[in-house]
Amino acid sequence: MLSWLQFRRPRTNSSGKKPPSKDLDGSGKNVLNIPILTISESDNWEVSSSSTMKYWQFVDWEKMEPKSALNYQKILQSDCKQLKSMARAGFWSTSHTLRAKAYHHIIHGISCRSVTPDREIYQQLSEKLFGKKKTSTHPFPEYMENGAIPMYCLSKTGVNSVRKILLCIAAHFPDITHCPVLPALVSLLLHFSEDEAECFHNVCRLIAYNDPDKRYIDQTFLAHRASCMTFRDLANKYCHGAHKLIATSNQSLFDIYSDWIMWIFGAGLPFEYAIRVLDVFLLEGYKVLYRVALVLLSLYKGSVPSTPSHIANIRQDIMSFVGNISCHITVDKLLEKAFSIRLFSRKEINLLLSANMSALLQKGISIHQKRMSVHLAVDLDNFSSSIVTGQEMRMVWSWIPERFALFQPIMLFTTSEHGRSLTSFYSQVEGSEPTVLLLKTEDEEVCGAFLSSDWSERNKGGGKGLSFFGTGECFVFTLCPEMERYEWAILHQPKIAKETHIHSSPHLKPPPALATEVPPPVTLAGPGGTPQDPSYLTVPFSVPSEGPPPEPAPRKPPKHPFPASMFMAGGTERIIIGGGGGQALCIAADLLNGWTEHCDTFQNPPLCRDSFRIQCLEAWGIQNSL
């Protein structure tokens, strides 16, 4: 078998020679486990292949595999929900022919555009592109990333067929400008296709799907990059340990998370694992890939020593780990873990994806862009703060939602320049959404908060005391002596989250005992004000009227899920972050004194010494949201 080789569009130097190819980290070493065929623009490759080969045309399949034939009848008689259960359990994984027939049945049940390329179109495209030549020098399609074609269990003839199909897809779908996963999908489906034409038709149905409840293939750099950002957001929520490991390294989060889908299809999972994921993917769409990738990331973190400083290249190390996944977990257990994750709903994921796409558009990525030609990673090398280092701010930036992390932090307020006045604080931060609050105590402890809503929202309470506002994306954190983040506790309590979402509907009012006045709901927004899912909205709650900050009261158990949704509040005497049974942060109007304690909203311990004096306080905004 061929070893992994990088397949790139060749460049020539002044001497006319091609430069040596390099792998992901530029070292020239191969770390990927699935063999691929390396073909450059000048290579000749065989065109005539198995275009007319049909693997079951000579036998009576029902006599050859009577049990599989009976199972196929069960597949035909099953509805979508039953088919999903079958796919997760590996119902058709024991027979090659049964899986081929199952794929044919499932793919032809996908809702897609009325005019979808068929066998006849493939024959026409193939004849137009290749004619009757026995060899071809066609370059790989531009939508392929580095031109890698995974071989899996294909012969050289099979790989040539994959290339033909990819070129025909490029000819028929010129709007596909970036799709690095497509070669792997074509390779996998060709294992279970009668011939090239059937494989082409099946892939085209995945490309031309129009089911609003599913996604299959990202077809532009904009969509692909938004998917990578969405996975990073999910990893930030569901794989906190692995995300922290990546963020604390000196390696690019952008590059590492850009590989996520290739962990599954292409460069990562071995064939017997990738094909089981494909079984479910065809029925359930993109969300399955997020689930599997989150499990892979979590398993990788579990395999890393407690002091991972010796890992020179995490990106390469993850890919190597995934390629050897059989040493760590069976495919059945992998899928079991994937479907045990209480992931966001498909609607919420799609809203997050849309918000990330909007942020990319603001960053300058167009829908027609073929490859990355703008700088998407935030540069913190020249970052300057009196409270945190660039590395510490990198950690904070890794925690915030990806649609904001695209943009540079910009200083809005600092006590060293704007003085110690809450009025001055409000005047500097109002109009900015979101903001990051940082403070250093006189004991050199550092903590802060990510605040998703504009501080001007505090004025919508009608002047009848402080009212909490904000959204479920708010969180508090510590940076020194330890780095830790505390999110909205409801995110980790699905039953309460469901109840809170119901009660926080704009059409329902909270009990009078919990709020004296309910201002209009606050909507999540992207850097340019993109509206977000109303299920994240929270109902504001009143806090005691203005006056000197009282001493922290003993924590009381919440009587209702509402108190776990108290994110931020501000008045003339103090600002409060986190409420319910206590306050995560309370800062007095002089911006000199404050306290911290456990609160139900974030389920945090005190973020520093209970009562503290502030050495310095800063507020940071997102450059593109100002």
Automatic annotation (TrEMBL):
SMART domains attached to this UniProt entry:
TBC, TLDc
Q: Name one GO cellular component term.
A: synapse
Q: One Pfam family of this protein, by short name?
A: TLD
**InterPro entries found in the cross-reference section:** Rab-GAP-TBC_dom, Rab-GAP_TBC_sf, TLDc_dom
Keywords assigned: Cytoplasmic vesicle, Membrane, Synapse
Membrane topology type? Peripheral membrane protein
Domain named Rab-GAP TBC: residues: 93-285
Q: Where in the cell is it found?
A: Cytoplasmic vesicle membrane; Endomembrane system; Synapse
Q: Which residues form the TLDc domain?
A: 386-623
Query: Where along the chain is composition biased (Pro residues)?
Result: 508-522
Q: Which domain of life is it from?
A: Eukaryota
Q: Which Gene3D superfamilies match?
A: Ypt/Rab-GAP domain of gyp1p, domain 3
Q: Which SUPFAM superfamilies match?
A: Ypt/Rab-GAP domain of gyp1p
Instruction: Tell me the segments the record calls region Disordered.
Output: 1-29, 501-562
Query: Which purpose does this protein serve, as stated in its record?
Result: May act as a GTPase-activating protein for Rab family protein(s). Involved in neuronal projections development, probably through a negative modulation of ARF6 function. Involved in the regulation of synaptic vesicle trafficking.
| Complex and partners | Interacts with ARF6.
- By what name is this protein known? TBC1 domain family member 24
